[in-house]
């Protein structure tokens, strides 16, 4: 006799787990929170890594009327310095002044720009300003300026005194450079200007020395074959050939200069040097 099949009562129906549904406004809040976190992180990093750049200087003005060039510009608040650049990157000046002399600018057309500095930060350069400059004495201009009446203030002009014209020459003296048996290896003569007053038969020169010792050494060498004389600005020597060397002893600002005058049929050495506008 067949046994009856016993069945277990069915349990409650099984329901798969439900995935929570994100409402649109919830998504928007999450996105906003992520954006705020990212922006906050950006500014936190920027606060530690960014550099404040100073403003660009304005008002760059160039004055090239004297054979050299003077550049001026307006100061920039907060700037610790400035950099003036000529042409394709030649740095004329780097410092705190807002008026700068470019004493070595060659003749021709030039462009200048200026930037402000704040530590290592450099502002964008100012708009370029162009100017045409004439010939100048370059780095030796401060020396020539010591004699504004006697010497031409630009090489391509004549001086006020007797239409004097000059050429420049940088050179060492006879015993300054060269091997030890003929010189001391040092350059003592900084600059030499050879000039002619009125005509080529009235020549003279102005020498600048690196120190008073250098000038005195040259003067002492000349004294061995010369007689001492006085002139209206100091002491001098005249040798048997009529060559005179004269020190300026009454003006400390020009104590490193020595004037050399050559005797010619057209001039007396002492009269010539005494007539010079020193």
TrEMBL record:
GO BP annotations, alphabetical order: polysaccharide catabolic process
Entries under InterPro entries matching the protein: FN3_dom, FN3_sf, Ig-like_fold
Keyword Membrane annotated: yes
TM region(s), chain numbering: 25-45
Organism superkingdom: Bacteria
Molecular function terms from GO: hydrolase activity, acting on glycosyl bonds
Biased composition (Pro residues): 10-19
Region listing for Disordered, in residue ranges: 1-20
Name under which the protein is recorded: Fibronectin type-III domain-containing protein
Originating species: Gordonia alkanivorans CGMCC 6845
